[in-house]
Design a protein that fits this description.
By secondary structure, the protein is mainly beta. It is 7% helix and 24% strand. The strands form two sheets. A three-stranded antiparallel β-sheet has the order 3-4-5, with no helix packed on it. The N and C termini lie close together (12 Å). The mean pLDDT is 87.
């Protein structure tokens, strides 16, 4: 598997940014475009974290996900809510922070 992050990227609309920024307990300012946060050569869909709803123990991530090959413009994508993967790192300090049930390695692998 290649090293570094995947080079795939996607952009969302101004209306989608407004919707995400206006979620109850929205924790971030949503950006209009970003790259896939998985490692280069990963399997499955591409994803980047667009917003976090900080509900205490019920924190939810809002992910932009798409299937287009890296280096091409995704013609379709979806914005989905999902809890975070809670797999701890080997030292037990951090958790993965990818969407739950993601394919491929954890963020710290």
């Amino acid at each position: 598997m290649a090293t570094g992050l995947c080079i795939a990227a996607a952009a969302i609309t101004a209306a989608e940014i407004e919707r995400l920024d206006n979620l109850p307990d929205a924790a971030n300012e949503t950006v209009d475009a970003d790259g896939c946060q998985f490692k280069a050569g990963h399997t499955g869909r591409h994803a980047w974290l667009a917003q976090v709803q900080d509900g205490g123990e019920n924190t939810t991530g809002w992910w932009v996900m798409w299937d287009a090959p890296a280096g091409t413009d995704p013609s379709t994508y979806e914005i989905v809510s999902a809890p975070f993967c809670e797999e701890p790192d080997p030292d037990g300090i951090w958790t993965c922070e990818h969407p739950a049930a993601h394919e491929g390695p954890h963020r710290f692998d």
